[in-house]
Amino acid sequence: MIIYMLAAAMTIAMLIATAFGLHQEAERSRAPRRTGGFPLRSRNPYHL
Fold it and tell me: CA angle at residue 29 from 26 to 33, to 5 degrees?
């Protein structure tokens, strides 16, 4: 019985980790589009 509980806990933990990883990957791919928008002023003050 303990093995089944451990397997269920590990399955839930891996599902949560997968969802978190997918969310991070989506945010990483969405970031360049968001910062490339309005070209009046650069966000980097050291950029020439």
Answer: 125
Phi, psi dihedrals of residue 43, rounded to the nearest 5°: -75, -20
Which pLDDT tens digit goes with each residue over 21-31? 999 988 888 76
Q: C-alpha dihedral over 12, 16, 17, 20, to 10 degrees?
A: 170
Q: 43 CB contacts (<8 Å, ≥6 apart)?
A: 35
The distance from CA 36 to its chain's CA centroid, rounded to whole angstroms, is: 19
Distance CA 43, CA 35 (A): 8
pTM above 0.70, yes or no: no
